[in-house]
Amino acid sequence: MPEDLQTIKKHYELAILGCGPAGMSAALNAKIRNRDFILLGSELCSPKLSKAPRVENWLGFPEITGEDLRQRCLKHVKEKGIPIVSFKVTNIYPGPPYTLVGQDQSIEADAVIIATGVSVDKLFPGEAELLGSGVGYCATCDGPLYKNKNVAIVSYNQEGEAEASFMADLCSKVYYIPYYSSDLSKLDPRIEVKKGKVKGIIGPEIVKQLDLGEEQLTVDGVFIIRDTLPAEQLISGLEMEDAAIKVNHKLETSMPGLYAAGDCTGQPYQLIKAAGEGGTAALHAIRYLDNLKK
Ligand SMILES: Cc1cc2nc3c(=O)[nH]c(=O)nc-3n(C[C@H](O)[C@H](O)[C@H](O)COP(=O)(O)OP(=O)(O)OC[C@H]3O[C@@H](n4cnc5c(N)ncnc54)[C@H](O)[C@@H]3O)c2cc1C
Asked: Which of 14, 21, 150, 215 could in theory staple to 37 by disulfide, Cβ–Cβ 3.0 to 4.6 A?
């Protein structure tokens, strides 16, 4: 189980973002080399791995299920004394040192490995253009900016329910647009649930409306809660190629000290590729950190 944030430091040599096979493999290599690092993840490491019914291409384990493999990976990481810190990063500010920002907290690191997997959900029309101008990925982080205003929360998972409840205390109106099925009858009655699907977020300069097709909601902010944020939204200026983070054979991205590994670097989306890239990225990040000190 991920640990909470109480025990973490302000600064690390290396931050590994994502606790799937790529992130865990990177962490293992950093630990074996006795480095100062932190492994950040979400509640379930990783949802994709747990959903794989039967994995046939993980060398040495011909019959293993995704959930079995997940448990083995977690056990391995735990036995090595690597804590997984539950911290969803919503923004990375370029460095070095890089600043990783999440709810109520930020962490600095001289090098970062992005291992956040890939989001299958396409961006909504207007989302990229209005990011930072009313569109955000963490309502509780930006909450005070929307005091007495109208906001909509579009959520792919139950995480959005807590965000909506938090905003209901601050905002004049909170709309909730779930992209998952769940019983929402216990949701705060001040929150208005809308069943429509998002056709677009309307500006032009700042968010004015959320288009749900049959109705347009007048809002000042739209928060989108996904399991995985699109990488290009996580850090601005990151070079992409075919919707994946562009890396070279050392898993270096277009920014110094910033590495990427796993599904987020593109196809094939496979466990063995993710784990291999995670380990490789860690080794190159360590070499980079050593050179920084010289
Ligand atoms: C149903 C299914 C079956 C599959 N079967 C196979 C198979 O048989 N063989 C095979 O090789 N592959 C299979 N795959 C693909 C495999 O699961 C992926 O390639 C692999 O999990 C990718 O690993 P990753 O570490 O790159 O990303 P992920 O496993 O997606 O892990 C990324 C992690 O990062 C976390 N994260 C994301 N964003 C943030 C953030 N901003 N802050 C903090 N944490 C974050 C996520 O919650 C997640 O825990 C399957 C996938 C699915 C969905």
From this structure: 14
